[in-house]
Amino acid sequence: MDRKGGALLRHAFVHLLFMFAAGLFIFFTDPHSSLRLLGALETAAILIAIAHFAVDAATLRLGGKLQRPGSRALLFLLDQAAHLFLILFLLRLLTGGAAVSGGLEGLFSGNLSVSEKAAATLCIFIWATSGAGTLLAILLKNIAPDDQLEEGVFRISDERTEIKTKYAISGREETEITTVKTEHYFRDSPEKTGKTIGMLERSLIVLLLMIRLPEGLAFLAAIKTLTRFKQFDQKQFAEYYLIGTLSSAMIGILLGVAAASLW
Prior knowledge:
By secondary structure, this protein is an alpha+beta fold.
């Protein structure tokens, strides 16, 4: 098995452990649970892990054939929707709806228990960190600075046209058009550091909206901007930073509004 297959297996195993833990949590905290329900939940956990591996393997195979960021981002969203559908379908099938119907009805009616609200909020924070980070990496791949020269060293190319007008001795007006191409090189922080900053940014946005402090968003944006201020003179980086920041903030705000509505 290659490295990607091993990573998929480890990913599915993590989901299996998480689902097992969730089943035990429900069993010990829900007074209406039974050993039969626990068995159904753990069986569902095994099937969900297998289905998760199959969906991820299919996504990986299809993703290798797609080149456009929009197509790859759509594939990622379909992958997430397929995971959610399989989880709800298998839980409803194996538990007779006991582990699904009540939570869905409470979600739409606004009558969720504290544990259900906490679980939904945890899912939002997971998507704000890991899920949104993956989606943004796909969307921004083609406009990110070039680091092919050396790992951690980025090249930003810029091109501008200069038009100069001068007059010859005869008095005739002459126009000179010059195209100037410049390349800037800079050493940036490791890629994982940027991802971590994005995760913290979206998590803080969700938290600020949950505690009804939207004013903190301006302070958060100011702090992030100051760290990159010197690089804004480079047009390509400024555009990349602006698109990435606005996209990340938009996802964080949408998830923050969803989390705030739960409480």
